[in-house]
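User: Can you fold this complex?
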Amino acid sequence: MTVKLRFFARFRELLGTDIIVEPHDGTLLAALVAEVARKNTDGYAAIFDEQGTFREFVILMRNGKRVETAEAGTITVADGDEIAVFPPVAGG
Amino acid sequence: MTVKLRFFARFRELLGTDIIVEPHDGTLLAALVAEVARKNTDGYAAIFDEQGTFREFVILMRNGKRVETAEAGTITVADGDEIAVFPPVAGG
Amino acid sequence: MIRVQAEDVNIGALIEAAKRPGTGAVVLFDGIVRDDDITEMELEAYAEVAVAEMEKIARAATEQFRLLHVDIIHRIGRLRVGDNILIIVVSAGHRPEAYAGSRYIIEEIKKSVPIWKKELTKDGGRWVPGEHGHGAGKL
Amino acid sequence: MIRVQAEDVNIGALIEAAKRPGTGAVVLFDGIVRDDDITEMELEAYAEVAVAEMEKIARAATEQFRLLHVDIIHRIGRLRVGDNILIIVVSAGHRPEAYAGSRYIIEEIKKSVPIWKKELTKDGGRWVPGEHGHGAGKL
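Assistant: Here's the predicted assembly.
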């Protein structure tokens, strides 16, 4: 299956965006983000703490809907999902 | 001496405006307004009550500065004065 | 620019001109002739005093809310439904001051600036009563 | 009109278009690139979600403040000092609703719309921290 990862702002600068991945069935959302983030040490450290837990301010969305980072370790991704990962918003 | 009376809004419709009068020395502000207003019964009644006192909502100015109507019976007009008489403001 | 005038204004140009150094927020208030079963509206001002009073309000707002620019244009004469009556433009470094300054100015204008409105209807006309019983309370 | 776009807008035309039947007050908020020792600003959006969220905010404001019209245009891309970042236009029958509705919209946008700003300086750039620690809190 195919899943798209979108990083924004500082995370995008470190990790790129619109990253197409092909995870196997049953891949957890948190694991998928971690796997992609690991390609850049600073990018990984911006999103995850030393314990490999999402940093408190990180925002996750799946198909435009907010997902609590605390639950991302229990949710499996599905074919066609768009996963967005970003820091606190600063528009306006 | 010469004094100009300016009425606004409803008072202007009833009494006109930019009325030049030539009061004698010592003419009181209240008396001058009453004298000019008397030329039109409705105009007088719009500004003064049955006792000849300024109605509570009437606003008086002398040369652009507010004068309390209660004090208009003790103030004499001076040559070149501009006296304005108007109802509550409704701009904006 | 503080004015009482018959002419309409170019709002886009006012906004651009309001962008002084340090500006982070511009708030514009536009009071419009509302269709309260009227055909037209006739506005009348004690113009010299109205301008002086609006200048005083602008100075007070500038000081109190640290505004960087203020325009107040109050129109007079015959206006139609949908026409601009009163345009207030304020600039500030940040939005709380811009909103608060704008609101302060309109409320003070309603209280104290000698301007009157007559709504013209099919049956004649009616003077709009002031929002504040005593009017010109602060002059 | 609810949009995320690179292009600037014609504010005068937006104000005219906002004059729906019953309108007595239009309030415009214009957020501007402020000269905080920056050369330019770069704005980035999660555009589809930003538009959907702004549409939600506009609907909530319309209902809560009985607004007659709402425009929200948030610009993205490279902007210079003095450029418009965010334009909010609201119409209402009376001014209290117009001011309150406008203010509600900007505060909600700050809280929840996925847009980010990077200030570009002579020495590089810095991402503007969100006003609300958790961001997108209401999505």
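Chain B has three helices and five strands. Helices of chain B lie at 10-15, 29-37, 41-47.
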